[in-house]
Amino acid sequence: MTQTEFLNIVMPFKDKVFRLAKRLLVSTEEAEDATQEILLKLWSNKTKMEEYKNVEAFSMTMTKNFCFDKLKSKQAQNLKIVHNNYEDGNTSLQKQVELTDSVHWVAKIIEGLPEQQKLVIQLRDIEEYDLDEIAKMLDMNNTAVRVALSRARKTIREKLTNTHNYGIK
Amino acid sequence: MVLNSIEKLLEKYENGETSLKEEQQLKNYFSQETVAPHLEMYKPMFAYFSVNKQEQFTKALPLKTKKVFNYKWIAVAAVAVLTLGYYFKNPVVSSYEEYAYGTYSNPEEALNEVTKQLAMISNHFNKGVSTVNYLEEVNKGTETLGYLNEMQNATNIIFKKQ
């Protein structure tokens, strides 16, 4: 497999890997490192890549596991991952200051969710994967994914309603 | 009417039962400028989702196949050095031997050289022997000591008298 062939396979989902990593690791730098690591791992195992049925799903599972490892690792326990990149990704919404603020709130709420729900929300609502695909990626069954998704959505909505009504009611 | 269906969709959405298409519908609805006031809180949620979807991985990928140092080449180099060394070693040693033993091709010349060497050796040997000749002086000294006996004889005579 040549470099271009590899890139053709990897390019479509590299952003998804990055966003998933960022969802779990929060810090952009950490997520970039993780993504790079994962893509390099794929590259070094490129001979095996043809055997995988779905490279994208496989990479997502890899990302999930890698990030969990990262979070569990000693480094993360000793040193809190520093992140100050809430402003990122909101460029298109600069005009609506009020809305940007609420968007921050969504980011914070999602950050507070349990890891599994974070993953499910990320994969479903942002990356728009099929429920079956998500189940396969996360090694869960379909119902469990649905339940996690429903809980996550409800939590987000409740908390948003609270902040939205803050000071009014 | 539209609002009604949206509300229904939202309920389904919260139960995790919407299809991707229906979710797209919701996203479209909430990306509008104006949404129903009681649904206002959903707006940032869907806005966040679509904004987040645009985030991209920008870091460069160093995809260069890492140049793993191949230890095979060390062996190759070692073999090359060994063979070269062996190749150049032999002539050097043979010339060294010639130098060490100093062979002459002409027998007459060799004889001359040998006699010269031997003469030098005997010369030095004689020099050594001549220094040993001084030992005779020592003998002379001991001979003179012999006179002490005479003195003893004299003393003997004296003591006999007493």
UniProtKB/TrEMBL annotation, chain A:
Superkingdom, natural source: Bacteria
Record Gene3D superfamilies: 1.10.1740.10, Winged helix-like DNA-binding domain superfamily/Winged helix DNA-binding domain
Name this polypeptide is given: RNA polymerase sigma factor
Pfam families for this protein: Sigma70_r2, Sigma70_r4_2
Domain named RNA polymerase sigma factor 70 region 4 type: residues: 106-155
Keywords carried by this UniProt record: DNA-binding, Sigma factor, Transcription, Transcription regulation
Keyword Lipoprotein applies: no
Keyword Transcription set for record: yes
Matching NCBIfam families: sigma70-ECF (TIGR02937)
RNA polymerase sigma-70 region domain segment(s): 11-75
Stated family: Belongs to the sigma-70 factor family. ECF subfamily.
From TrEMBL, chain B:
UniProt-recorded name of the protein: Anti-sigma factor
